[in-house]
Fold:
Amino acid sequence: VWLVDLDRELPPESEFAGARLRVARQALGAILGELTGSESLRFEFGPDGKPTLPGGPHFSLSHSDGWALIAVCQTAPVGVDLEVVPSPQDFQAAAGRFFTADEQNLLAGVAAAEQAEAFCRMWVAKEACAKQDGGGLRMLRSIETSHAQDLSVVVGGTGQQWQVRGWTPIPGYCAALALPHDSERSAFQAELRAL
Amino acid sequence: MEASAAATGHGDVVATIRQVIEHHGRLPGAVSDLGDGDDLYAAGLTSHASVNVMLGLEDAFEVEFPDAMLTRSVFETITSISVAVEQLQRDAA
Structure:
C-alpha cells in the first residue's frame, strides 16, 4: 500500500483538484508500470466502472483531499478506501441511510466526541469491501461491519465475506483495506510506503 | 436546505443541482467554475461526499435514489445527475 502526498507532487500553479487526481493516477501508473515492467498499461472497466489490469496485478486507488492510497495485490482483487474524518453534520444523514440497524446502534453507543471517527472507520471498511467487489456505492447498505471483531471480517447481505484491516494513515483520516475472506493471510502482509 | 423543491424545468434542475453540490460536495473550488459536463470526481468529489450530494438531492427534489442508481457514472457530472433526477421525477409523477 502506497500513501501519496498529492500536494507535494503538484506542479506549481496547477489547477488544484483535477491536478491532484492526475497526480494520483500518475502514481498508480508508475507503480503498476514498475511492477509489470510495462510502459503501456491497458485498463479494462467493470460494469460499475472498476478498473482492472488484464493479467494483473490487482489494484485499488482512493483519494481524499490532498492524499491518496494505492493498494496492489498479486493474488486477489483488493479494495482500499481513504476518507477524511467528517464533521458531525456530514455523517449523520449518511449513517441513517447506509448503516444497518446494528451499525447505527453501535455508532450510537460511542461517545459523542468520538462518533465522527467511529463513523469514518466503519464507512471506509464498507466502502473498501464495495470497491473490492466492484459493486460500488450501491452495495453499501448490504455490507455489515458491526459484528466484526476489530473490523477483521465483514459480511455482505448475500453472505459474501471480506477480511478488512483499518488504520489511521495520517491524523484526521481513516483508511481500510479489504480482501476476499478466503484470501491467504500472507496477502495481508501489507506494507505502507510513502511515495 | 436552500434549494427549492419546486425545481421542474431543466434549467431549474441544473441550478438546484449546482446549489446542492456547492453545499454538500466539499469541492476545493467553486461549482460555478465547472461546466455541466466536467468530471466532478476530477474536481475533487469523494465517494463519501457524493453520498451527501445524493442525500441533498433527495431533500431538494423530494425523490429517492434507489440503490441501483448509486453508481459512479450517475454522479460523474452535473449533466449525468440531472438526467438521473429528471428520470426520478418522471417516475414519481
Chain A has a mean pLDDT of 84. DSSP finds five helices and eleven strands in chain A.
